Amino acid sequence: MQHALSKLPNTGTTIFSQMSELATHHNAINLSQGFPDFDGPSCLLKRVDHYIKQGNNQYAPMIGIASLRQGINAKLQRCYDFQADPDSQITITSGATEALFVTISALVHVGDEVIVFDPAYDSYDPAIRLSGGCPIHVPLLPPNFEMDWDRIRNAVTSKTRMIIINSPHNPTCQTLTSRDLNELYELAEKHDLLVLSDEVYEHIVFDGQAHQSVLRHKALAERSVVVSSFGKTYHTTGWKIGYCIAPSHLMAEIRKVHQYVTFSVSTPMQYAIADFLQETPEHDQQLPAFYQRKRDHFNRAMSSSRFEFTATSGTYFQLMNYRAIQDTTDTEFALWLIEHAGVAAIPISVFYQTPPTDMRLIRFCFAKQDARSTAQPRNW
């Protein structure tokens, strides 16, 4: 019998699955994995039911139904003053993770280097390796996790093909500035680099900020692929419906891979989202205030604890420093927190190739009903 020769020998089950399983085992409050514990808008759910009963239950077009792609284009114009061709520059995908995977698979070749910023969402590195590329990890360092552009410039070589950015950033909760986009454009233009911009939390930014999408920078958008997620925006992560935007010549290559990975995405849900986009465009405009209330509610409850923190500027996560509670590694503390306090959180070091040795940070998800996110932990 032949034994499988692993293409990802150092990759195991994701930290999100591990912590959720431990939360279930210990009957803990699960503030680890990034999903809401409340449902999407009722009118959106009713539209899904409508289209199922209308018989829209067969394959959708590979690139996504036309009305949804047109609705996305209208949203891009409204939010970023960006015009995309719905037929050649927008593709509906099975969640943002599929969009990331097919983009990397289509555009990264054997021997190419791809710059990722640690702590990084854990799907980037495996996708690069599976494509024969080499991930180059550039650390973002606490407490501010800002982009060190001198360090980034030094990481670029003749083999660099792509830079992957993520803003609002998971797991550090930081957001890029317009200056960062200008720096990124100058670097990408000088070295003829592609940019993959993971913007799934685009509408979850706080304190009056405007999300700095690469689509706001027209010249940068010409060499970029932007990925987003209806699951994050509409509280429906289990639907796994995302999309990507790219110049036509890049999108043609992305679709070649997409058609053999997923082919098409849930038909009735696409029609429902298309209707919701057209009829309720104010939803994404209301999202910052909706989640800022949850952020502030959670942080007020945590202010009497020994955790130290600065209010997050984006995403529905909050980093907290536990140095005043324990002087252990973050993975050890996360396990202790589940077992002794009955709360599940995510350690930050697992998102680094080489984590800072003295970092004492964990990530909580506050996309929860208020009673759950501030429930009294055991033995606190």
TrEMBL record:
<dbReference type="InterPro" id="IPR015421">
    <property type="entry name" value="PyrdxlP-dep_Trfase_major"/>
</dbReference>
<dbReference type="GO" id="GO:0016212">
    <property type="term" value="F:kynurenine-oxoglutarate transaminase activity"/>
</dbReference>
<dbReference type="InterPro" id="IPR015424">
    <property type="entry name" value="PyrdxlP-dep_Trfase"/>
</dbReference>
<dbReference type="Pfam" id="PF00155">
    <property type="entry name" value="Aminotran_1_2"/>
</dbReference>
<keyword id="KW-0032">Aminotransferase</keyword>
<comment type="similarity">
    <text>Belongs to the class-I pyridoxal-phosphate-dependent aminotransferase family.</text>
</comment>
<dbReference type="GO" id="GO:0005737">
    <property type="term" value="C:cytoplasm"/>
</dbReference>
<protein>
    <submittedName>
        <fullName>Aminotransferase</fullName>
    </submittedName>
</protein>
<dbReference type="InterPro" id="IPR004839">
    <property type="entry name" value="Aminotransferase_I/II_large"/>
</dbReference>
<keyword id="KW-0663">Pyridoxal phosphate</keyword>
<dbReference type="InterPro" id="IPR051326">
    <property type="entry name" value="Kynurenine-oxoglutarate_AT"/>
</dbReference>
<dbReference type="InterPro" id="IPR015422">
    <property type="entry name" value="PyrdxlP-dep_Trfase_small"/>
</dbReference>
<feature type="domain" description="Aminotransferase class I/classII large">
    <location>
        <begin position="28"/>
        <end position="368"/>
    </location>
</feature>
<keyword id="KW-0808">Transferase</keyword>
<dbReference type="GO" id="GO:0030170">
    <property type="term" value="F:pyridoxal phosphate binding"/>
</dbReference>
